[in-house]
Write a sequence for this structure.
């Protein structure tokens, strides 16, 4: 009982934090009519999708937050002695649903977005929406793993990864074409968050890409994400090997 | 001159519990639920004179640390009175701080991120210690406690024994009149313990510093404290000299008798009011007896009736034994 | 007084030890700076050049973003629980035993820390911002000076807020519940999340009578010339004094209430 109520409290707290973000979105559109040519409803669509993917990805990899402290305290050894793959062990070593608050909010924002924009729904569009969110969940899970991978080598400066995790999820909340070349290349081709919200949204809204990419480009999302996940999996294994050989 | 005087000092702690449910836990953000109280110190009284070294002992959870926290002014007692160096600690915490030194063995007053010497320098400013006193005290401590080799090391990296020496130095920089030590030797090796004990006796001899010491290491007490107070469940059970304690409560000496062969089993019938055959182990029998009513030769001659005696040895009671029996409740509370 | 100066000096020096963390933090601040600047600029796409919306031209909005990123570490808008940690671990006992003013003890350390972070995080972030974007600079040397003076006041107000939230720990040892409240309050009310003028009038007017805008919005306005130097600094001095008073009040009750953990 005590556990359940503190659990509800955490969800509530998490909900509050994200309220600020949503508030900022509405306030911006209180002053301005559009952002890079997009309306409030359209940007809210990006917000909702990003929040859902991010919170799911985060919840599924909460265990990754504990890798660094576990390495430092020596408890990571225990993770390696369990009969599952090391990544699964690390991920399941801690389960915490605190980001349920953000997930709920994501759904609320998405619902709001649907009331604001006109989407010509079809089966492929529904599949696109689901596919985009699944891609996003995989991508964010991989990103949270990157943070843990670095801690196999160093305890210093790991927070730079925040620029990609939190930065990535924030960036995914806005239309890609407002960003400069460097950020676009980074977040389309290397850490493909553009495929979590922006390209799927273009498809849902039947908008052409102002950056000139053809319509099928969106289908590259899962491919680039798979490549990214592959690299991360390789990095994780390198990290584990490093840990085993140095024991630290 | 009385340095510490305590009358009917009591401390109860509230026992808190969070309310269940979502609303309850929301409410617990702002207040906590109250659920009865626990009496950690139950109205104790004592006086400590200037220059005394008093051992304050008792089992875990007895209320020792709680008492010390009240006498430093950190905790406000539920009721009762105390004066320390002429002040009421919890009303004049900050003035009192200039007159007392405190070491909590499990905590440090040094700054983790600073080198030991830097921590000491900060404390110098904090306690407004004149330069020459600072230098003098630092030199003394460096000499007696061997600080030299780790003065420049960050506190974070000090070993427990090194840190404790640093903490002790820190507590004495401002020449306090009273020193409270709460388990200062916890976790230390024999050499470090010895260094700290020597340092404390020297301090007490040279500066007449009053010391109140809690510890679970009875060697500390035997070597440092002519007077001890025993507390259990928040009550003072004994307050007096160490030798008195042994005399009165550890009155049983032990005679170990080695027979040529196994003694007659009937030897166990010797046991009566002031004598007890504790064990028979092959040819060796251990007999405890009351020092006031029996003498060793008398016991020996009685034992001689049950076999040929080859050898014997006499053991004086040790404080360990006394305290063990006291904690276990075999000795009635109150003196 | 000497002691507080020594404390500040030492926490100032200590900050320079964390080189990797500083670089990592600078990188993160910069990425967020670029991102937010781009988003704000996109809001002005369909406005005429030099149009001012909610009191900000596009260039000013970008400058606001970078000042915000530069002030994150010196001022600290969230996630500072050092005092609660000492309460929870029981280490607070050792602080209570020292003949010092508990509030000034922490404040001086925090000011020392903040000063170091102006150098290691604040100025570099602004330099990076000025390389990547066109920023608006203070129009006179007086404004430069006034801005520099306003930062320690911003730190002070922020510190007081953090101090009070931490003292909550004397009653309640858990900060998870309130930490989300802090993020919301400081993020929105300081103006760090969005320029305060952009909120609807009712919300804006409400935020403007609170002390928290001293943490961010007032320094920005001093920089941009949107408030007179005298008025801006006076507001900060006023709110610092009020907040410090509140801290002592809370401390007064907290000290009597102290629950020391563990033996
Ligand atoms: N803050 C507190 N809240 C509630 N109970 C407390 C608190 N501090 C101490 N107690 C209780 O008061 C009693 C006495 O504690 P105290 O720390 O004084 O014991 P002690 O004699 O120092 O023991 P030890 O030898 O283990 O250090 C214990 O039962 C403890 O649980
Ligand atoms: Mg204790």
């Amino acid at each position: 009982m005590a556990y359940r109520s503190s659990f509800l409290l955490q969800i509530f707290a998490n909900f509050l934090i994200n309220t600020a973000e949503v508030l900022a979105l509405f306030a911006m559109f209180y002053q301005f009519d559009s952002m890079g040519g997009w309306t409030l409803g359209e940007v809210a669509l990006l917000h909702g999708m990003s929040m859902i993917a991010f919170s799911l990805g985060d919840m599924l990899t909460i265990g990754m937050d504990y890798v660094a402290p576990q390495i430092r305290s020596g408890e990571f050894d225990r993770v390696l002695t369990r009969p599952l793959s090391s990544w699964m062990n690390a991920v399941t070593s801690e389960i915490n649903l605190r980001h349920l608050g953000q997930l709920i909010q994501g759904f609320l924002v998405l619902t709001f977005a649907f009331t604001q924009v006109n989407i010509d729904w079809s089966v492929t569009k529904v599949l696109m929406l689901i596919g985009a969110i699944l891609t996003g969940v995989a991508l964010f899970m991989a990103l949270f793993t990157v943070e843990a991978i670095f801690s196999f080598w160093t305890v210093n400066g790991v927070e730079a990864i925040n620029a990609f995790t939190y930065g990535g999820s924030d960036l995914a909340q806005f239309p890609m074409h407002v960003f400069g070349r460097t950020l676009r290349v980074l977040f389309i081709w290397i850490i493909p968050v553009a495929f979590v919200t922006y390209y799927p949204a273009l498809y849902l809204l039947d908008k052409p890409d102002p950056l000139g990419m053809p319509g099928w480009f969106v289908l590259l999302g899962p491919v680039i994400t798979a490549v990214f996940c592959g690299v991360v999996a390789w990095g994780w294994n390198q990290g584990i090997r490093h840990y085993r050989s140095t024991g630290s | 001159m009385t340095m510490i005087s305590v009358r009917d000092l009591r401390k109860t702690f509230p026992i808190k519990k969070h309310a269940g449910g979502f609303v309850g836990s929301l409410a617990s953000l702002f207040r906590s639920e109250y659920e009865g109280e626990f009496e950690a110190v139950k109205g104790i009284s004592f006086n400590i004179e200037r220059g005394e070294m008093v051992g304050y002992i008792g089992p875990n959870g007895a209320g020792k640390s709680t008492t010390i926290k009240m006498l430093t002014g950190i905790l406000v007692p539920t009721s009762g009175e105390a004066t320390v160096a002429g002040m009421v600690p919890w009303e004049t915490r900050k003035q009192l701080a200039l007159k007392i030194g405190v070491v909590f063995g499990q905590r440090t007053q040094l700054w983790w991120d600073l080198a030991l010497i830097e921590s000491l320098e900060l404390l110098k400013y904090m306690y407004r210690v004149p330069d020459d006193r600072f230098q003098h005290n630092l030199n003394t401590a460096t000499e007696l406690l061997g600080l030299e080799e780790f003065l420049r090391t960050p506190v974070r990296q000090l070993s427990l024994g090194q840190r404790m020496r640093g903490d002790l130095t820190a507590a004495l920089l401002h020449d306090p009149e009273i020193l409270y030590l709460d388990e200062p030797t916890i976790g230390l090796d024999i050499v470090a313990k010895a260094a700290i004990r020597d340092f404390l006796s020297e301090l007490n001899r040279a500066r007449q510093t009053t010391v109140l010491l809690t510890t679970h290491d009875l060697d500390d007490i035997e070597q440092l404290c002519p007077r001890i107070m025993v507390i259990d469940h928040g009550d003072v059970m004994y307050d007096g000299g160490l030798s008195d304690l042994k005399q009165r409560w550890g009155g049983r000496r032990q005679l170990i008798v080695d027979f040529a062969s196994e003694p007659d089993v009937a030897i166990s019938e010797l046991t009566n009011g002031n004598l007890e055959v504790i064990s028979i182990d092959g040819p060796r029998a251990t007999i405890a007896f009351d020092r006031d009513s029996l003498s060793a030769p008398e016991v020996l001659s009685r034992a001689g009736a049950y076999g040929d005696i080859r050898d014997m040895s006499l053991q004086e009671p040790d404080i360990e034994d006394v305290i063990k029996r006291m904690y276990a409740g075999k000795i009635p509370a109150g003196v | 007084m000497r002691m507080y100066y020594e404390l500040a000096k030492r926490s100032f020096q200590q900050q320079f030890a964390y080189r990797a963390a500083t670089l990592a933090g600078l990188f993160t601040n910069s990425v967020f700076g670029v991102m937010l600047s781009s988003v704000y600029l996109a809001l002005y796409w369909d406005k005429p050049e030099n149009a001012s919306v909610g009191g900000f031209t596009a260039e000013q909005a970008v400058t606001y973003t970078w000042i915000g990123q530069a002030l994150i570490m010196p001022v600290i808008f969230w996630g500072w629980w050092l005092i609660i940690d000492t309460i929870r671990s029981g280490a607070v006992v050792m602080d209570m035993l020292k003949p010092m003013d508990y509030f000034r003890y922490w404040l001086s350390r925090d000011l020392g820390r903040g000063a170091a972070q102006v150098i290691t995080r604040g100025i570099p972030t602004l330099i990076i911002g000025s390389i990547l974007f066109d920023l608006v600079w203070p129009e006179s040397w007086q404004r430069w000076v006034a801005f520099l003076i306003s930062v320690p006041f911003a730190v002070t107000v922020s510190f007081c807020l953090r101090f009070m939230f931490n003292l909550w720990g004397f009653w309640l040892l858990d900060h998870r519940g309130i930490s989300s409240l802090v993020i919301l309050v400081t993020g929105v009310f300081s103006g760090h999340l969005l320029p305060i003028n952009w909120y609807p009038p009712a919300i804006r007017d409400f935020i403007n009578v609170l002390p928290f805008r001293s943490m961010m919005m007032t320094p920005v306005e001093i920089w941009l010339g949107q408030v007179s130097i005298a008025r801006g600094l006076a507001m900060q001095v006023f709110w610092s004094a009020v907040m410090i008073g509140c801290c002592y009040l809370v401390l007064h009750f907290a000290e009597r209430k102290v629950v020391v953990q563990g033996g």
Summary: The longest helix of chain A spans residues 2-31. The pocket of magnesium ion (ligand 2) is lined by residues B 64-65, 182; C 263 (CB under 6 Å). Residues 4-242 of chain A form one domain. Chain A touches chain B at residues 1-2, 5-6, 8-9, 12 (CB under 8 Å).
